[in-house]
Design goal:
The complex is a heterodimer. Chain A has one domain: YVTN repeat-like/Quinoprotein amine dehydrogenase (Methylamine Dehydrogenase, Chain H). Helix content of chain A is 6%, strand content 47%. A five-stranded mixed sheet of chain A has the order 2-30-31-32-33, with no helix packed on it. Chain A has a four-stranded antiparallel sheet with strand order 3-36-35-34, with no helix packed on it. The chains are: A mainly beta, B mainly alpha. At the A-B interface, strand 1, helix 1, strand 8 and strand 13 of A face helix 3, strand 1, helix 4, strand 2 and helix 5 of B. Strand 1 of chain A pairs antiparallel with strand 2 of chain B.
Chain lengths: 403, 157
């Protein structure tokens, strides 16, 4: 009879250590280190932290900006980069924008550069190559969110240093921040997925397999409004999803809505407004169509709303519709130019035009003033702390006027 | 790490320590064999920690760590056989895959995350320690003898 296999003292120690490490790894769930999901849709007064300001994508700032005229207080000029999707966001502490391969922050007082973070990857020889920034910055939970190439970056707002990066397998643009949660859709692994991430840690709350892209958040119903446009299809549908799980709650009938991603709908008072051709309003609770107004809206500037009216643009001008009924309130003959979506501050609607910005009175569409600056054709507008910030291919401009 | 000696370990434990040339040979062999386990473990943790590492940075760090371990092992009085080191690497990789499937959460390609680095580090540490236990810490002479007798018995019938 031979002796049974035995464990040396060192072997026993190693086995114990291995078991402890296994238990520690098993107990290290993301739930333990990831902050709880907070879907807070409110935005600090005076801030403009994302595209169309808030998670509802209203484009509405209750604090007035320039009302009767505006002049350039400072300008931060950049090389004449081809700006595909720049945008500008602002808080009382920072004004942030992107260039084709970097994200930068300016000081609101004088427009001086606070920090600039380049987005670069290395090739096989170790040389740096620029990652192309796909979409403008957004602020969420102390982080600046920027999409460069196929990754979503979370940068520290104060310093611009990178905290985390979430890699995907395809380029994407649309990112929606709600409270401390970031929603985006891209090819991840071998499938298209919609993802909800923690803005603080980059750890996912949920991932669901779908080609849907996030557009806006409806806080009353807890609904994440998404666009579902299958690859190669010209048209898409809107889907309302439970923001805490990603589960589909409702789907609209198929619409003639190309470029749903670019035409970012706006949400207000239980309605989601979509503008691409006609203007639609759907119930955020069940997706039913509430009204439809005929109009020739352009495809790449979404609607904005102050709660009373919905404002849309076309090549020839601006139109306002009653938010509750869809009845046309007024139209203004303004030659809209540039990729920026109009912005509202109190009773003024700022519209991008060929040589700058035209401000309209929201009540009747009359002109309040026109401000011009080099480069014209804004590609991003934001109103924060009483100032109107404009991004165009020449740089960032801060406009001030009587409030 | 070395375990109890049995008859089959004679090759691992010659009476005379190996010469310099032999040690260099051992070191090269260990470096190649441990690259799949130790090197991959260090590379995974480094890659999880760095946001935008220069190409090859994580692999280079893993290689340096592997070289250090290979140097330590080959510099000992009785270096383990390359067969044992190969078995260690193979068992560690299998255990890592198994543990990853059992306890690894699907967080995706997240970089610059201390959580992902800790998760990868703990899982690899568990796999390496358990592999060391299996390969170096267990006296396999008993089972080997029983197997030999069993086979001899079969042939006798």
């Amino acid at each position: 009879m031979t002796a049974p296999s035995t464990l040396s003292r060192r072997g026993a120690l190693a086995a114990g250590g291995g078991l402890l490490a296994s238990l520690a790894a098993a107990g290290l769930s993301p739930d333990r280190v990831r902050p709880e999901m907070r879907l807070d849709s409110t935005v600090p007064t005076g801030s403009w932290p994302g595209r169309k300001r808030d998670p509802r994508r209203t484009g509405y700032q209750p604090v007035p900006g320039p009302r009767t005229g505006a002049s350039v207080r400072w300008r931060f000029l950049t090389p004449r980069d081809p700006t595909a999707s720049p945008g500008v966001v602002a808080t009382p502490e920072h004004v942030l924008a992107v260039r084709p391969s970097s994200t930068f922050a300016l000081r609101p007082g004088d427009g001086s550069l606070a920090w600039e973070t380049g987005h670069r990857e290395r090739d096989l020889l170790g040389d740096g190559t620029n990652e192309f920034v796909q979409s403008g910055p957004q602020l969420a939970a102390g982080h600046v969110l920027t999409v460069a190439d196929i990754s979503l970056y979370g940068l520290d707002t104060a310093t611009g240093s990178g905290d985390w990066a979430y890699g995907t397998n395809s380029s994407f643009r649309e990112v929606l921040a709600v409270g401390n949660t970031v929603f985006f859709g891209s090819l991840i692994g071998d499938a298209d997925r919609l993802v909800a991430l923690s803005a603080e840690t980059g750890l996912p709350y949920w991932r669901t397999e779908t080609v849907a892209r996030p557009l806006a958040y409806a806080p009353d119903d807890g609904i994440l409004v998404t666009a579902r446009s299958p690859a190669g299809a010209d048209n898409g549908v809107l889907q309302g999803r439970d923001a805490r799980s990603g589960a589909v709650e409702w789907t609209t009938a198929r619409l003639d809505l190309p470029l749903l991603d670019a035409s970012a709908p706006a949400v207000g008072d239980g309605r989601v407004y979509v503008a691409s051709g006609p203007v639609y309003a759907f119930d955020t609770g069940d997706g039913s169509e509430l009204w439809r107004a005929p109009y020739g809206t352009d495809a790449f500037r979404g609607p904005v709303t102050d709660g009373d009216r919905v404002y849309v643009t076309s090549e020839g001008g601006v139109a306002a519709f009653d938010a509750a009924t869809g009845e046309e309130r007024w139209t203004a003959d303004v030659p809209v130019q540039g990729f920026a979506t109009p912005a509202i501050a109190a009773d003024r609607l700022y519209v991008p035009v060929d040589d700058g910005v035209t401000a309209l009175v929201t009540a009747d569409g009359s002109r309040a003033f026109r401000a011009t600056f080099p480069g014209g054709r804004p590609s991003g507008l934001a109103v924060a702390d009483g100032r109107l910030y404009v991004r165009n291919e020449r740089g960032v401009f801060a406009l001030e006027g009587e409030r | 790490m070395t375990g109890p000696t049995d008859a089959a370990d004679a090759a691992d434990r010659p009476d005379e320590p190996p010469g310099t040339a032999m040690r260099i040979g051992y070191a090269v062999a260990y470096f190649l064999l441990l690259g799949f386990s130790v090197g991959e473990a260090v590379r995974a943790v480094t890659e999880a920690l760095l946001l935008s590492p220069a190409f090859g940075t994580a692999t280079a760090v893993g290689s340096v760590a592997t070289a250090a371990v290979a140097g330590l092992l080959s510099g000992g009085r009785h270096p383990p056989s390359t067969g044992r080191v190969l078995a260690f690497s193979a068992v560690a990789v299998v255990l890592r895959l198994g543990l990853g499937a059992l306890v690894g959460p699907a967080v995706g390609d997240l970089r610059g995350s201390p959580y992902v680095a800790a998760d990868a580090g703990l899982t690899w540490l568990a796999a390496l320690l358990l592999a060391a236990t299996v390969v170096f810490g267990v006296d396999w002479s008993g089972p080997r003898e029983r197997l030999r007798r069993h086979l001899d018995g079969d042939r006798g019938e």
